[in-house]
Amino acid sequence: MTNTNALDPRTPVIVGVGQLLQRPTDLGDAREAVELMRLASEAAADDAGGRDLLSRAQLVTVVKGAWRYSNPAQLVADRIGAGDARTALTHDGGNTPQRAVSILSTRIAASQLDVALLVGAETVWSRRRVRAQGVERRTTIQSDSKPDEVIGEALPMGTELEWDQGIRVPIHTYPLFETALRHHRRERVDEHIVRVSELWARFNAVAVENPYAWLRTPMTAEDIRRPSRRNRMVNYPYTKALNSNWDLDLAAALIICSAEAASAAGVPTDRWVFPHAGADGHDTPFLSNRDNLHSSPAIRAVAAKALQLSGHGVDDVRHVDVYSCFPSAVQIAAREIGLDESRALTVTGGLSFAGGPLNNYVTHSIATMAGRLREDPAAVGLVTANGGHLTKHAIGVYAAHPPDGGFRAEGVQPEIDRTPVRDCVGDHDGPVTIEAYTVMHDRDGPERALFATLLPDGRRAWGHSTDTATMADLMQADLVGAPARRTAAGAVAVE
Q: Model pTM?
């Protein structure tokens, strides 16, 4: 039990966490996203021991979602009795919940804030079905209110050189990382997909035991890697089960306050979970300029800084949740942090199974981590957060006991910016070497191959192919490192 008498009253502490999902039989009972935020906030207050904390919130922060509210934090504040609270909205990015926790904790430690609420929700599952079936659902229209602040930073997530070749969204880029990583690890195609599917099967097993996971159906490694009617190939080498899933209705909330405010509210100390440290930074905003596609200097630097600030080493960490939109993100992060892939790398079950609610997954992972640490009060937990194309990163260290030197958070961007970068061109016509690739599928089969290639002088050029034989060859053997020719328009022919 925490000795509150010896604790700095400005120590930030998570006192309440709330999670929920909705999948009603009658779509008319499905609630809109802002209502799920209210319910998750009330669940977090109940978890802390009483709803009085909600009315004391001085700042309500909402994680940006796939909805049209202009200032959802105000809607939530009004509904929980904190109408005078300041409001905030995060930028896009899966890194933003952890980034927000670090910002709020820093303000609490600096006596700028006493009680804060962080909340987010997605209702993609019900919204799609309500529209498809013509069901009426009341939805709040809000467009004339703006939040008092925006948390995080906006980074451009692509260039015309990438877009011209059809490389736009994460389902295009993360399998590129995967094939680059496969080649870097010198794995055969067959042994690679077995290892990756076994990793994902361990994530699935955690989700099966998580009451807040969206998909809790047990899947074996073979189920995960084998294409089937329910698990079609989407973006080679990934089947549907190896992709992030955002077709869901989920919400999560965290109440963060000072130790002084927690004591004044009568929150039992066995509910307290302490942020120990946080760090953040980003890789090159544009994928085109990454030095390689199998590593992340930013994750390496951010993790090292977060652990250093917390006073812990990686071997001290007992519970981990690695951001898991796709297997390549987990593998790269584990290698950069120094985590053995064979250990448990998730407490939720990951974005394929527990669910990937756009930017809000990490609110769920922190909430779940808080529960794990309450059960294991001597342990240290680590949560990673990732936004964009393995671009924006935030990492937090947590425990149910207070940090020895108080909460600390820093950015490490200057260090990351000193790492090597690569130039990219769009009009190269001539020989290239294949650096990475994926084959995008529609429901009828292979549709388009996407390539990262390297010129003889080391510059990068993106490319594509719609040749049936080429796409078949790419899925049979590791062709990373193979010679090819690229036209000025980007068509790639493997030699």
A: 0.97
> Is the separation of the CB atoms in 94 and 165 below 8 Å?
no
pLDDT of 123 over the 70 cut: yes
pLDDT above 80 (res 130): yes
Q: What is the Rg, in whole angstroms, of the alpha carbon atoms belonging to the chain?
A: 23
pLDDT at 168 over 70: yes
Contact yes or no for 19/212 (Cβ under 8 A): yes
Long-range contacts of 156-162 (CB under 8 A, 24+ apart): 156/285, 156/286, 157/285, 157/388, 157/389, 157/391, 158/286, 158/287, 158/389, 159/286, 159/288, 159/424, 160/426, 161/288, 161/424, 161/425, 161/426, 161/461, 161/462, 162/286, 162/287, 162/288, 162/462
Percent of the chain that is helix, strand, coil (3-state, to 5): 35, 25, 40
Which tokens in the block code for residue 119? 């909340």
Q: Which helix (H) or strand (E) holds 337?
A: helix 327-337
Q: Binning pLDDT at 50, 70 and 90, where does residue 155 land?
A: confident
Closest CA to 44 of 136, 107, 144, 120: 120
